Amino acid sequence: MVLGGGEGDGTGHTLAGRDAAMDAALGALYGSAAGAGNGKPPGERSAGLGGSAPRVARWLGDIRTYFPAPVVQVMQRDAIERLGLASLLMEPEMLEAVEPDVHLVGTLLSLNKAMPETTRETARAVVRKVVEQLEKRLAARTRATLTGALDRSARISRPRHHDIDWDRTIRANLKNYLPEHRTVVPERLIGYGRAARSVKKEVILCIDQSGSMAASVVYASVFGAVLASMRSISTRLVVFDTSVVDLTDRLTDPVDVLFGTQLGGGTDINRALAHCQSKITRPADTVVVLISDLCEGGIRDEMLKRVASMKAAGVEFVTLLALSDEGAPAYDHQHAAALAALGAPAFACTPDLFPDVMAAALEKRPLPMP
């Protein structure tokens, strides 16, 4: 669609009605007045949102009326970046008007400490809505994938009656089907022993909470809560910048985890890995997942030594440069190459791929790197 403003912007066709309203909403964000200081001469298509909260609230309502949700989320993100609207998000009426998504959650978390008390509950409601959407999308598949990975290592051939896996047992004995009796004779039983109900693996999620990792922090917190809900996996969640915070005690609620983070600041991976290493009690049954762009501000050589030490002890070490849908991330290539040389290749991972990566790590199989 070609949208024309005053005098049709050279097209000879002016807009009216709904088209004119859509054009005005776009012009407020992307027009010359909206991009003050962008070097463009002022023109007739001036709009802009200025610093007026009521005007912005009306604009947020307009774009939700005229555009689908994915486009609304892009426009909101552009408005925050281009027009400096972050401070307005600390007003409850503004938060109620926005379309919540992962990027908005990241922005709210970065404003967490500066947020007035009147806005905090509204912000938590926005964050909870996004978290519940992500859990609905990711939780069931994650549990199914990881339960399968854990069960494969616990399969036994002489299970008690209540431990029989009837689905696999029937499939394994279909050759013994008796048509006249309409039944299968189970020559071989497949099931899982009591060990399958105890803690079998330990997972430590070590998450970089520097500003560039906002989306990864959101997804990792949701996955951390999902893993913590599985009895066979003992889960620990650690976030870090230049300091380290262990949020394991909040894993029952990923919203609490997220509000326990503080996006921004520097990065000290070595210090974070030192904390994680001190919590490992069964190296051969432990998976450490480092989620970071590897822009280390601490002691690089010590960081690499810690990774080498953990791997030598039998720990499965996974490095994710990002856990998000945002495409190729920016990261420290030298550190990534150094980790790869230690047998811990670093790669970006989408949320949909994460369950498969974790299943492979739990089974000590090659990771399904994209």
What does this structure look like?
By secondary structure, the protein is an alpha/beta fold. 44% of the residues lie in helices and 12% in strands. The chain contains 13 helices and ten strands. It has a six-stranded mixed sheet with strand order 7-6-5-8-9-10. α1 (17-30) packs across α2, α5 crosses α6 (117-152) and α6 packs across α8. The longest helix is centred in the middle third of the chain and has 36 residues, at 117-152. It starts with 16 loop residues before the first helix and ends in an 8-residue tail after the last helix. Mean pLDDT is 83; it is low at 36-47.
Summarize the structure.
The protein is an alpha/beta fold.
How big a fraction of the residues is strand?
5-15%
Question: Helical segment tally?
Answer: 13
Order of helices and strands: HHHHHHEHEEEEHEEHHEHEHEH
Major beta sheet summary: 6 strands, mixed
Approximate helicity band: 40-55%
> Can you tell me the overall shape?
globular
Query: Could you tell me how far the N terminus lies from the C terminus, measured between alpha carbons in angstroms?
Result: 36 Å
Low-confidence stretches: 36-47
What is the number of beta strands?
10
Arrangement of strands in the largest sheet: 7-6-5-8-9-10
Q: Structural class of the secondary elements?
A: alpha/beta
| CA-based gyration radius | 26 Å
Mean pLDDT metric: 83
Topology:
Layout: H1 17-30, H2 53-66, H3 69-83, H4 92-97, H5 102-110, H6 117-152, E1 155-156, H7 166-172, E2 177-178, E3 183-184, E4 191-192, E5 201-208, H8 214-228, E6 233-240, E7 244-246, H9 254-259, H10 269-278, E8 286-291, H11 300-312, E9 316-323, H12 333-341, E10 346-349, H13 354-362
Parallel strand pairs: 5-6, 5-8, 8-9, 9-10
Antiparallel strand pairs: 1-4, 2-3, 6-7
Helix pairs in contact: 1-2, 5-6, 5-8, 6-8, 6-13, 10-11
